[in-house]
Design goal:
single chain, 148 residues, 47% helix, 0% strand, binds heme C
Length: 148
Amino acid sequence: MSRRLIIGLAPISFAIPAAGLALALVAAGTGLAIAQPAPAPSATQPVINKADLPGRQIFDHQCAPCHGAGPGDDGAPMLPATALLTRKYEGNKPGALELRTDLDAEVLRYFVRNGSGGMPMFRKSELTDAQVDAVAAYLAATARASGG
Ligand code: HEC
C-alpha cells in the first residue's frame, strides 16, 4: 500500500477554502494535528508534495535544516541554503532542492562529498552512498509530484 502525505497546502487552502477544508480533514484523518491557521501564501513558499520514500527521512534530518522550503525559526522567510540558491539561480531554478529536477544521484554525490561554499561535505561514515542515492530518489519524486 502506498501512502503519501501532502504537506505545504497553505497557498491552496488560502485560495480555495472548501478544498482546503477537505484536505485539512484528510490530513486530520491521517493523525496529523493542524494546530495553527495557515499562514498567508507568498512567492517564497513553494508548495511541495513530499514523497513517502526512505530518502525523505534522511533529507529531513541531514539536509532540510538548511535546504527545506519552510520559513526559518528566526522568522526569515527562507532557510539559508534555499535563500542562497534562490539568489544564485535568479529564478532559473527553484531554491528548494525538493523542486529541482536536475539533481540526479551523480550530481548529488558530487556536492555531498565535496561540499560547496556554505555547504558542508559529508563523509561516507556520516552518509553512505546508498543514503545519498535514496535522497536523490526522494528529490526526483518530490520534484515530479510538485509539477517540476
Ligand atoms: C549547514 C547547511 C547545509 C546542510 C546541512 C546541507 N547543505 Fe547543501 N548547501 C548549503 C548551502 C549554503 C549551499 C549553497 C552553496 C553555495 O552555492 O555557495 C548548498 C548547496 C547544495 C547543492 C548545490 C546546488 C546548486 O545548484 O548549486 C546541493 C546539490 C546540496 N547542497 C545538497 C545537499 C544535500 C543532499 C544535503 C543533505 C545530505 C545538504 N545539501 C545539506 C548548505 C547545506
